[in-house]
Amino acid sequence: MPSETGRPLRADAQRNRDKILAAAVRVFAEDGLDAHLERIAKEAGVGSGTLYRNFPTRDVLIEAAYRNELSRLCDAATELLAALPPREALRAWMGRFIDYATAKFGMADALRALVESGVNPYARSRELMLEALTSLLAAGVEAGTVRSDVGADDMFAALTGIALASGKPDQRAQAERLLDLTLDGLCTVRN
């Protein structure tokens, strides 16, 4: 990821940034709006100066943490398709979608406050997820393992429904069962 100057970050600076974003998701999920940035820095194993150098305000950090989760989800489609057969890649991505939704639900209060301040962290979120799903579904159709009559919009709606019904961490087993049921209905070849 480039720095504010447009140059790529040094490897250690990128690692610190990544640790801060991961810690931010956890802490905002646990503490909501009461989350202290100093706790995030401590959990990330960096100093407060490093946190503020990367994310000068709470709002900037919240938005970056959410967008990082979104990027991780969407980028995973290409990575999974390179490593797994299309059906397995789709199923793995579906699990990551639930991870993303769980993180988003955990950060709900912080994200809501960000929206109320006039920032839209969700700009292009749906579009990016639909692009990722489209590539996964197309690979499955091409391999002959996924029905061709189900579009990314329908799949996104199904995944969103599962996340809303079973997106809490203590509901993960149910979410996994629902993902398997959805995949079984989507696939032309049963395992």
Could you walk me through the main structural features you see in this protein, from its secondary elements to its overall organization?
The chain has about 190 residues and is mainly alpha-helical. Helices cover about 75% and strands about 0% of the residues. Helix 8 packs antiparallel against helix 9. The mean pLDDT is about 90.
Q: What descriptors fit this protein?
A:
elongated; 9 helices; 74% helix; 191 residues
Roughly what percent helix?
A: over 70%
Q: Biggest sheet: strands, sense, closure?
A: none
Shape: elongated
Which consecutive residue ranges, at least 5 long each, have pLDDT under 50?
A: none
What is the helix/strand order? HHHHHHHHH
Number of strands: 0
Task: Please sum up the structure shown.
This protein is an all-alpha fold and 191 residues long. It has helices at 11-31, 37-44, 48-54, 58-83, 86-106, 108-116, 125-143, 152-166, 172-186. The radius of gyration is 18 Å and the shape is elongated.
Chart the SSEs and their pairings.
Layout lengths: L10 H21 L5 H8 L3 H7 L3 H26 L2 H21 L1 H9 L8 H19 L8 H15 L5 H15 L5
